[in-house]
Design goal:
By secondary structure, the chain is of the alpha+beta class. The protein contains three helices and 13 strands.
Length: about 170
């Protein structure tokens, strides 16, 4: 329903669609703990406490939630590795086409991978064309694909493609 109504309306009005899927996925986690809460007197405190508890419990179990999601395929170039469109680690979900950052570098996820217990993303690295602020950059799409371990990168807050093909990225 969201795609049929809101996204089409935004595209007609603004001529672009802002990618907020990271925020949408985070919203679903919060919504799951917020819906059962009936006492609204201390609603925010109850939601935050429940969310912290759920996140802590998921992270403290052995590799609970850490791994590829959905259908997987073997990656012939790397023996024993498998790829998927999505993965989850420490309650963070990453999907193909998400924009991630690592030590000042920006990249677009082209595949989520697992080799044994190790999770990593195959990332098409982008070059920073312009620093707009400390938290936002314009990036030119690159062609080189690198393997970034999940412990070394983080999701960018938001991004959108510009008419010239570059990306406007908000880091945090």
């Amino acid at each position: 329903m969201h795609w049929l109504l809101d996204v089409a309306q935004q595209l007609a009005r603004d001529k672009i669609v802002l990618d907020a899927f990271v925020i949408e996925r985070t919203h679903l986690r919060v919504k799951a703990v917020a819906e059962p809460i009936k006492n609204t007197r201390v609603f925010e405190r109850s939601v935050l406490a429940s969310l912290a508890s759920v996140t802590w419990n998921r992270a403290s179990t052995d590799a609970a939630g850490n791994g590829l999601l959905g259908r997987t395929s073997a990656l012939p170039e790397l023996a024993g590795a498998v790829v998927a469109d999505r993965m989850e680690f420490y309650s963070i979900e990453v999907a193909v086409d998400d924009v991630v950052s690592r030590s000042g570098d920006i990249g677009i996820v082209v595949a989520c991978c697992q080799s044994g217990p190790r999770l990593f993303a195959l990332v098409k690295r982008c070059g920073v064309a312009e620093n707009i602020s400390d938290h936002s950059k314009v990036c030119a799409l690159g062609h080189a694909v690198e393997a970034w371990p999940v412990s070394e990168f983080r999701l960018c807050l938001a991004w959108r493609r510009r008419p010239d093909g570059s990306l406007l990225v908000v880091l945090e």
